[in-house]
């Protein structure tokens, strides 16, 4: 009976739950799904992380390569993020060139890296004007159940914390680079940005961590990215229902709380890897 | 063809802006919006017949195409297109035209800072020129946070480069709520709220300009 109602009138079905301040999966409006993270699962990558936010599964692999720095910024390396939404993760994505959602997500991740300054590009430079690291961060969604941006930012952060770069010295005589794979050092991550996404329902209600079904019924989305000092790295509200400044402030407060939970989780996982 | 110029002064410190509507003959609606030296040309087609794959059963399908001044559209343009599309979808009463397609094409003519807010303003004037049913108007305002904490509205390209953070808001005309927000660089929460308040105040000037330009256009003089 409830299943039939859910198929025919999904919005009304949801409204019945929202009136009681809860959601069909039993969560409260401000509650996140169970977050799990697995670090270092891809041995062929320099750093990797698998993040599950409920059913949404995102894997991030970081590969480091060498390249010459750009002519106008000779002391900077490169970080190239790419978000892929293969047709495997959901029936709404067809195989072929990346769609709008994948491209917008890639741009969002690039903005988060740039705005938060989590990795300073100058740290990736090996020899000024000659050699620098390029970090290719591939974020692939394996199961799309909403809230792609949160999971992607989390996977990226965990994977970058896991990256071990081999030491590179430039031989003075030959001018060639020598890579020492036995001597590895981790990346300097200066800031830890964490994203929190909200879905706006009926122009008034804000629910945290929407599933794919909730995102389809929502009238808008907001994503707030904060770092550990409580500074805003990004306020991403791509259209949708209008919000007052006060509602935006509520989102930011919730995002700051979420940051603390995520940071604790990441620290716990990193510590468990280091102790091995 | 109707051109109007505004020279806002006082606290708003917006660059002088002007708008020309109905300048293209083929699209159903067109507008060119100029903010200082930044200008964007918007062309709107719709409601027109939609391709079967793209049509939605209960509302109009909106599509936005943003063409940069130089080069092919890349990932940044796709991201801007998504933001513009969802902003327009929030105001256009699409349910009045189901199974149709509304296409908004924006061409960047020159970029001297505050490009996204110029695109938003051009899009709104284009929607007005096309006569599409809207639940409210919207305008785009960009704020740049200088290294010393001062807020500069409608920044030039140089001010944007030197700024610590650049925030762009789309404000709606009914209750001055935030339709769209996007930030570049990092800032504190208080600074973001201050920028928002400044942007909402600046939106009053822009909405007055919309009103004046439409009044001038449609008054029989």
Task: Describe the protein's architecture and organization.
- The complex is a heterodimer of chains A (276) and B (221).
- Chain A is α+β, with helices and mostly antiparallel strands.
- In chain A, 31% of the residues lie in helices and 32% in strands.
- In chain A, strands 1, 2, 3, 4, 5 and 6 form a 6-stranded mixed β-sheet that branches.
- Chain A is elongated and about 80 Å long.
- The N and C termini of chain A lie far apart (52 Å).
- Chain B has helices at 75-91, 115-130, 157-162, 189-218, and strands spanning 2-6, 17-21, 29-35, 38-49, 61-67, 100-110, 138-145, 151-153, 165-172, 178-184.
- In chain B, strand 2 and strand 3 form a beta hairpin.
- The interface between A and B is large, with 36 and 39 residues.
- Chain B: Belongs to the RNase PH family.
- Chain B: It is found in: Cytoplasm; Nucleus, Nucleolus.
Largest interface: A-B, 36 and 39 residues
Globally, the shape of chain A reads: elongated
Please tally the helical runs of chain A, counting DSSP H or I stretches of 4 or more residues. Answer: 6
- Report the count of strand segments of chain A: 12
Strand order across the largest sheet of chain B? 1-2-3-4-6-5
At the fourth level of CATH, the homologous superfamily of chain B is: GHMP Kinase, N-terminal domain
At the first level of CATH, what is the class of chain A?
Alpha Beta
Task: State the separation between the terminal residues of chain B, measured CA to CA.
Answer: 15 Å
CATH superfamily of chain A: GHMP Kinase, N-terminal domain
Radius of gyration of chain A: 21 Å
CATH architecture of chain A: 2-Layer Sandwich
Count of runs of 4 or more consecutive helical residues of chain B: 4
Summed over residues and divided by their number, the pLDDT of chain B gives a mean of 91
User: Mind summarizing the main beta sheet of chain A?
Assistant: 6 strands, mixed
Strand content of chain A: 25-35%
Q: State the domain count of chain B.
A: 1
Arithmetic mean of pLDDT of chain A: 91
> Sheet with the most strands of chain B?
6 strands, mixed
Subcellular location (chain B): Cytoplasm; Nucleus, Nucleolus
GO cellular component, one term (chain B): nuclear exosome (RNase complex)
Main location (chain B): cytoplasm
Protein name (chain B): Exosome complex component RRP46
